[in-house]
Amino acid sequence: MLPSQNLHRAATLADVGREAGVSAMAASAVLNGARTSSRIAPETRERILAAAAKLRYRPNAAARALANRRMDTIGVAGVFDDGGELNQYFLEILSGILAAAGSREQNTTVFTLHDWDRDTARLHSFCDGRIDGLILLAPTLSRAQGKLLPAHTPFVALHANTSLPHVVNIESDEEHGAFLAVRALIDGGHRRILHFFGTRGRLGAERRIVGFKRALATARVPFDDSMLVPAGFSTEEGRRAMRRWLADHAGEPLPTGIFCVNDGVAFGCLEALAELGIRVPEDVSIVGFDDTLGARSSVPQLTTIRQPLRAMGSRAVEVLLERVNGSNGEMIAEDVSSVVFPVELIERASTAAPPSTDRLVPPRKQRR
Amino acid sequence: MLPSQNLHRAATLADVGREAGVSAMAASAVLNGARTSSRIAPETRERILAAAAKLRYRPNAAARALANRRMDTIGVAGVFDDGGELNQYFLEILSGILAAAGSREQNTTVFTLHDWDRDTARLHSFCDGRIDGLILLAPTLSRAQGKLLPAHTPFVALHANTSLPHVVNIESDEEHGAFLAVRALIDGGHRRILHFFGTRGRLGAERRIVGFKRALATARVPFDDSMLVPAGFSTEEGRRAMRRWLADHAGEPLPTGIFCVNDGVAFGCLEALAELGIRVPEDVSIVGFDDTLGARSSVPQLTTIRQPLRAMGSRAVEVLLERVNGSNGEMIAEDVSSVVFPVELIERASTAAPPSTDRLVPPRKQRR
DNA sequence: CTGAAAGCGCTTACAG
DNA sequence: CTGAAAGCGCTTACAG
Q1: Contact yes or no for B91 and A95 at CB 8 A
Q2: Which CATH number fits domain A73-166+309-341: 3.30.1310.20, 3.40.50.2300, 3.30.1540.20, 3.40.50.300?
Q3: pLDDT for B251-285, tens place per residue?
Q4: What is the maximal distance between C-alpha atoms in chain A?
Q5: Are A45 and A38 in contact (CB under 8 A)?
Q6: Which residue, among B5, B80, B234, B348, would best test binding to A if mutated, counting the most A CBs under 10 Å from its CB?
């Protein structure tokens, strides 16, 4: 049995000063001050350092934050626990945020929301001096709710669903991404193409639908509503949507290509197709969107549209810190511009030329 | 153009008190105090609440932390950015941590390490009053390094590689998990079984090797070293290990079953097998370990050993908070016991009975 | 080069 | 029921 880790209180600057025979202020200058440390005589400095080491001095971040009016911590708020693949998206952005924050010696605290609409109150409670600024991850707040955001906290949004007053939004060119995905299918010889789309009303879902239609129109491939299949954003929803479509179209020709609203839905499609023994890409080509980690480890590896999620996360930190540092009284416009990142087509093994003859939907489930 | 969000300083309790015509202390009792709030007259209370709303008062967490000697924040330190699948493992535990911390009104801040050995100094710098306690995620610190951990911060470890002084370790019964995995293969009729093992010297890897051997011994299946194939912990390493094994054994019989050290390695095996047209589970059965999210979305879905990662994360928070709350001077033993969670076999589509006739390793890559 | 003072915004005893 | 005082541990002017 050793004494409790917390039996004695932690050493303070005053303790260190006493031990070294100097004031707490001198200890502060040596141990925590950046520019003022030169003003301490070298031998005093040594004594202070030795005393700090002996007492295992650790600065108290709360006290420092209070004196500096600065926590050196940014917050990230998002719907983290949405079952499955949103996690992937979240994780990649989060790792970009963590990297950028870390390299600028900022900490990151993560706030989990269950629902943007219901948790606005909690959102307020995060902005209470423990963070210097907050990154909103894919918020679906209305503009009215945006106006109610706490006034003294700088915000940056990533993939915001609506433009929020005073909040810079960081996004990617999703419509162009959808266009690239569908054009790649068309260039590969595909004509019978489906789009498994996301949750209606969500900006990302709508933009991909627009890009899908534009690619068809540009190539003069006729569009009709039956090419639009409702899915959602999760693997589970993708799987169900594909199964349903197959059940509804037994005996009819398969599409030769499917553009999915995101990688998660694409994975669900892969599974549902595999259940019926339909081969990808020999029978059907599949394209996803996001280039999450899983896209490289699915079988077959997924052709997808890469959004630079990590870079977007890093950028969010940079923009936020600019605002935190520069917010000493200058004006911030209500309608700030967004930052739009480019997207890129990543061709992997889930796409190929369409089959030379029509493939029909198998009548019913075969054994696996 | 509207004024900057930070033009005016945020309202303090003194401001609220002034506005309501009472002291800051009264405002504190109403707005932040839990037990003392009854001591304020109802009408005073109303006035204070109204003033706080008008001024959009938000408590300053740093000041409160300083006064309370408590941040209401726990830290999580781990190697986050290890390329790929460790992220999955990390993410699931993290979501358990976030959920448990959130329900107890504790915040979570995430610290990323690149390497446990080199970043011990950074580890110290985290323990500086911004967190009340720290969860170490899969630390590979030596016991000597463990002794150097900051003395005034309570710690809990998850899957620690060695037992750290004063640190409760939360782990799962990995050896038994390995035993279950291999016994399931044996019970299914498999005899020619390989184990793709993890990084040598890592406790988790060693325990799985022990479980593998014990299952063979129990069933009187002879063991020899050629059944042990070095892989690692990542999908990339699993893919390379499988490819290498196949290249080295062209024309020889395939194993009928492979037990992989984790899901990531199993995914790599699936890919490398698919490249040669070897079917899972018809030709080879594959078992993973962890039951990460991807195990349900791989093709085929992966049979694996489930570790209750989320529950383990939640438990880590509970144990840590007990120590944070109870650390007012009682003793904590140097050698604390570990918490061991049970594991469970999850049978999915990557395992089946062995083929009736030997399958040989195809001589060379076929076209996909 | 070094120290005494005041203050960051909150809370906890202690008086009234 | 309410307020004046002291303190949490640090930092930033200001004197010497």
Answers
A1: no
A2: 3.40.50.2300
A3: 999 999 999 999 999 999 998 998 898 999 999 99
A4: 90
A5: no
A6: B5
